[in-house]
């Protein structure tokens, strides 16, 4: 049995290793005040390196984001890369950073440590949006990439995002391997390399060259410049106090779009995000200022990127004056139809086209693929899976020009296998301009797609459950509705008013629709995750429900989608299903779960 170190020992170890006097003094002050509760939170556990790298609050302590954690992580990552990537020293590392507090410092610190190992470093000078790092890794054939950002997290947070040599976010086994390498590096940090100076002959500036190449790539993704329109659509854009505005502005210029109106209060990078509590375009109220600006300016559309500009959303002003915010799935359908039409126009065989979406996203792409004859593949949530799935399909001979997840992330083209909010902004604006010339709006075009492929509507939310044991009880009960026969589902047989036709349990490894093995095609999830499909044959209405636990919050999330020919019928079926999930499946009253 391993004895846990005393709190005093943890404090002494931190003070011994931390090279930064500010964070060292933080821990010393807490120890002087004998604030044991806070010190336990900061020092007892270490922030975990996972497939998203690191992300957390900027404070002193092993469980926080600070100079020492960044230095130790870079030490371990550089060791791992040298041991697992051929010619890593010459191929080098691409580093980017956004405007958050400490981002530039930590980028420089990372550069110093990699260079101290003899590894070439392409350090992107000035703020960049996150997709510039995977673009740089691909363009420079680099060994890996690091982006210092916390994306749309609150202002107190920052992060360390890692891309592998394939220019996609890391997945297993590299996440575990890097985590192990970091632990091995903890006690032998070369403090002489941790100067945050980013100087030396191995640290190379290719910023302008890579940005120029990025905009050339971006221009190639879109159709030819839109001919002048007498009254072009009017756009308002917000970069949510982030880094996106100069990239979006330049992209509008090179693709022939009329300039947009910026939300001035949110246009410039500001790490304190003064006008929004959570700088996430999906959060309720986050777009209020943009919508006010658009209404005042008489604009037709609002465009929005999150602070590191890898995600995108949009809103349209209807003829009634009401603003309608597109869901992530609706934008996914609009983008997929645009990509599909462009592919058709190229004259290439439809059997060579493939598109990818996460398993919790809409099944509308699946319906489109069924009717049009291209291949659709779903994968686990996250662009680490979407990007790697796309690369696998390319290896199989497919062209994969598009992939998305419902959390407003969209991937375009073959050069960036990650979400790109600037590319999505331009694709949407170009689509709108083209539709405007035809006298149509994006919302009207979406209704045309519903007429073509069926009406799809999503409902999503979560149940807050503070007790992990209750969460376990809920999922155990969902797996024990019937006799435990392998050939027969033991899960709920109905969802709302519909019969359950297929169950895929990515926790236990069971798929009722895949005999004779009953093994799911998707890899297993590290948390609880079950997907149900249900159908009413007479009504021609379908439901897809995914239940999963959050890896970072005490939540049971649900993603529910209905589809059919009649929108009112689908809405009614969805409402009954939500009530059934809350009352019977989750037993909300019994366990006192709050629903959002």
UniProtKB/TrEMBL annotation:
Extract the Pfam families matched here: PGM_PMM_I (PF02878), PGM_PMM_II (PF02879), PGM_PMM_III (PF02880)
What's an example Gene Ontology biological process for this entry?
purine ribonucleoside salvage
Required co-factor(s) are:
Mg(2+)
Q: What is its main location?
A: cytoplasm
- Give GO MF terms, alphabetically: magnesium ion binding; phosphopentomutase activity
User: Which InterPro entries does the record match to this protein?
Assistant: A-D-PHexomutase_a/b/a-I, A-D-PHexomutase_a/b/a-I/II/III, A-D-PHexomutase_a/b/a-II, A-D-PHexomutase_a/b/a-III, A-D-PHexomutase_C_sf, A-D-PHexomutase_CS, Alpha-D-phosphohexomutase_SF
| Domain Alpha-D-phosphohexomutase alpha/beta/alpha positions | 47-183, 233-317, 327-453
- Cellular component, GO annotation: cytoplasm; nucleus
Question: Gene3D superfamilies per the record?
Answer: Alpha-D-Glucose-1,6-Bisphosphate, subunit A, domain 3
Localization of this protein: Cytoplasm
Sorted keywords for this record are: Carbohydrate metabolism, Cytoplasm, Glucose metabolism, Isomerase, Magnesium, Metal-binding, Phosphoprotein
Concerning PROSITE patterns, the annotation shows: PGM_PMM
Similarity-based family: Belongs to the phosphohexose mutase family.
What is the name of this protein?
A: Phosphoglucomutase
């Amino acid at each position: 049995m391993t004895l846990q170190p005393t709190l005093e020992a943890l404090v002494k170890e931190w003070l011994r290793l931390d090279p930064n006097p500010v964070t060292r003094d933080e821990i010393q002050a807490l120890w002087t005040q004998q604030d044991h509760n806070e010190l336990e939170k900061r020092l007892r556990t270490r922030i975990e390196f996972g497939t998203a790298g690191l992300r957390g609050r900027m404070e002193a302590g092993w469980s926080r984001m600070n100079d020492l954690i960044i230095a130790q992580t870079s030490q371990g990552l550089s060791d791992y890369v040298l041991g697992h990537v051929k010619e890593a020293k010459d191929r080098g590392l691409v580093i980017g950073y956004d405007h958050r507090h400490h981002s530039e410092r930590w980028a420089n610190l990372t550069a110093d440590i990699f260079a101290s190992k003899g590894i070439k470093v392409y350090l992107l000078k000035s703020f960049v949006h996150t997709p510039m790092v995977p673009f740089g890794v691909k363009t420079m054939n680099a060994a890996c990439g690091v982006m210092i950002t916390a994306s749309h997290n609150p202002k107190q947070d920052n992060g360390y995002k890692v891309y592998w040599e394939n220019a996609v976010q890391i997945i297993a086994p590299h996440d575990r391997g890097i985590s192990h390498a970091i632990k091995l590096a903890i006690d032998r940090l070369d403090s002489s390399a941790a100067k945050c100076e980013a100087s030396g002959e191995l640290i190379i500036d290719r910023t302008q060259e890579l940005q120029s190449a990025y905009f050339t790539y971006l221009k190639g993704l879109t159709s030819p410049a839109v001919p002048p329109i007498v009254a072009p659509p009017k756009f308002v854009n917000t970069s949510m106090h982030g880094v996106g505005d100069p990239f979006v502005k330049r992209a509008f210029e090179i693709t022939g779009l009329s300039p947009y109106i910026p939300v001035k209060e949110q246009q410039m990078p500001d790490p304190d995000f003064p006008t929004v509590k959570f700088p996430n375009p999906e959060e309720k109220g986050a777009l209020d200022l943009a919508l006010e600006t658009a209404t005042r300016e008489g604009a037709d559309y609002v465009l929005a990127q999150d602070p590191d500009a890898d995600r995108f959303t949009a809103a349209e002003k209807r003829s009634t004056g009401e603003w309608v915010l597109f869901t992530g799935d609706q934008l996914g359908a609009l983008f997929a139809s645009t990509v599909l039409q462009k592919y058709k126009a190229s004259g290439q065989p439809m059997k060579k086209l493939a598109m990818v979406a996460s398993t919790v996203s809409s099944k509308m792409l699946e319906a489109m693929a069924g009717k049009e004859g291209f291949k659709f593949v779903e994968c686990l949530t996250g662009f680490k899976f979407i990007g790697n799935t796309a690369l696998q399909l390319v290896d199989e001979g497919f062209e994969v020009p598009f992939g998305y997840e419902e959390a407003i992330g969209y991937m375009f083209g073959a050069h960036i296998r990650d979400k790109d909010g600037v590319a999505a902004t331009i694709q949407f604006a170009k689509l709108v301009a083209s539709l405007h010339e035809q006298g149509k709006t994006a919302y009207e075009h979406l209704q045309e797609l519903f007429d073509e492929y069926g009406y799809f509507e999503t409902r999503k939310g979560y149940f807050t459950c503070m007790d992990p044991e209750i969460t376990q009880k809920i999922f155990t009960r969902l797996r024990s509705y019937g006799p435990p026969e392998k050939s027969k589902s033991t899960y709920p047989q109905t969802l709302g008013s519909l019969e359950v036709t297929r169950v895929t349990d990515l926790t236990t490894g069971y798929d009722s629709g895949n005999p004779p093995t009953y093994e799911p095609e998707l890899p297993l999830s590290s948390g609880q995750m079950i997907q149900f499909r249900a159908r009413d044959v007479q009504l021609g209405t379908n439901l897809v429900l995914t239940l999963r636990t959050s890896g970072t919050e005490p939540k049971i999330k649900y993603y529910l989608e209905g589809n059919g020919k009649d929108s009112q019928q689908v809405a009614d079926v969805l409402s009954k299903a939500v009530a059934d999930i809350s009352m019977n499946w989750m037993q909300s009253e019994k366990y006192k779960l709050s629903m959002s």
